[in-house]
Amino acid sequence: MNDDIQPDGSDVYDNAHEYEHGALGDAEYAQFMELAAEEGFDIEDVEGAIEAAGHGPLPVLAVVGRPNVGKSTLVNRMIGRREAVVEDRPGVTRDRVTYEAEWAGRRFKVVDTGGWEQDVLGIDASVAAQAEYAIEAADAVVFVVDAKVGATDTDEAVVRLLRKAGKPVVLCANKVDGPSGEADAAYLWNLGLGEPHPVSALHGRGTGDMLDAVLEVLPDAPEQSFGTAIGGPRRVALIGRPNVGKSSLLNKVAGEERVVVNELAGTTRDPVDEIIELGGKTWKFVDTAGIRKRVHLQQGADYYASLRTAAAVEKAEVAVVLIDASESISVQDQRIISMAVEAGRAMVIAFNKWDTLDEERRYYLEREIETELGQVAWAPRVNVSARTGRHMEKLVPAIETALAGWETRVPTGRLNAFLGELVAAHPHPVRGGKQPRILFGTQAGTKPPRFVLFASGFIEAGYRRFIERRLREEFGFEGTPIHISVRVREKRGAKKK
């Protein structure tokens, strides 16, 4: 995965962090910064780029509220661009969408959540499902209420659940387009969540004061160290389409019937955590609900099952994606794989029901894998049968391989030697009479591996993919996505804004 210098916060920075802890030493750190200065980079710019990737997971802010109160409009205002789907009717947001935002120099994630399908599950169950997701995912919550309408019974139900959660809540009184509407906002004091912040998400009025309040309750992103594992068993999420055998696989590795298995697709609705001894180690397996189709096309229970599955993937360290080998690889299989990649998780692809395949199907499956899954050729693959237990012994080594790649770190000196040889042998194509060069780089973090490259000009996406391929060839990184960010050197003499 390649992007501009907008790290997602799941990383730690390299040189400055190592310098503080003595791993690089004064001399090597000084040489790195001297190189940056010689190449025309502002030292503060270099340190800022590294520090930007120098945190643990970014704090998460969930924006919740009943349908059509302006949540997506508010999210667009927070992130400074129109990305969340906005339409003047309830329930347009039917996906869990996460964006990066920055306010007053602090970065955080914003989760835009959908409203509730009150006619499907009933108001209590629907509100509980959505609020439960917000609680699971967030460090703090912005609760959006339509100030013109006032607090409804649905809003009151959300308040009760948020109080039980104990998470910090900022109350946003939306649709206050002028001073005359502030009296409506004042009535929301009665919700008991503290001061209602009058906001017009559509026009931007009051959003700055509300974001100031958000920063007061949102925790700072913690620093992390390379390779520092979180305590407890390693967390494995089993994901895939309905009826591909996730529950059967979990039962097989557990050695007993832990999860209900039924030929009817969709038996599992909620993620099920199971502590399992496998391969001489203790693991926490999560059997998730099958993801049927695009989340925003789903209804009722399937919608909430997908939200919980997405939350389970975010909490996991490695995702085992189950694919039914007896059927053609579907667009939905590819979307589920993309979910794990975008979440930055280590990944193993398990082709289930392998025992049912004849030679012809195996031939065509190999062709499908080449064409449909070429973008994740780095993921370890196992061919298993959850029904018979065939090749189950290969699952743990594949998971361990993926986790090792996920935590791999390349020393700065070795990385720059590699980059120097690569650029000399395969320079960037000339575009518009100019030939940008990779000048130097550093690994900004692990879990997944993230690299920050410093360049003399814009580096095309194709060349970034080439660098990623060569990084994999040289250093492995099996079973993990790689993120590459590029910081371009400003023109000499140009003033920084």
From TrEMBL:
SUPFAM superfamilies xrefs = P-loop containing nucleoside triphosphate hydrolases
Instruction: Report the GO molecular function annotations.
Output: GTP binding; ribosome binding
* Protein name, as recorded: GTPase Der
GO process terms (BP): ribosome biogenesis
Determine if GTP-binding is one of this entry's keywords: yes
Q: Where is the EngA-type G domain?
A: 59-222, 234-407
User: Which keywords fit this entry according to its UniProt record?
Assistant: GTP-binding, Nucleotide-binding, Repeat, Ribosome biogenesis
Which Pfam families does UniProt cross-reference here? KH_dom-like, MMR_HSR1
Q: Give the gene name.
A: der
Q: Where does GTP 1 bind?
A: 65-72, 112-116, 174-177
Described by its record, this protein's role is as follows: GTPase that plays an essential role in the late steps of ribosome biogenesis.
Say which species the protein is native to: Streptomyces argyrophylli
* Family membership: Belongs to the TRAFAC class TrmE-Era-EngA-EngB-Septin-like GTPase superfamily. EngA (Der) GTPase family.
Q: Which CDD domains match?
A: EngA1, EngA2
Residues that bind GTP 2:
240-247, 287-291, 352-355
NCBIfam families documented for this protein: GTPase_EngA, PRK03003.1, small_GTP
What interactions and quaternary structure are annotated? Associates with the 50S ribosomal subunit.
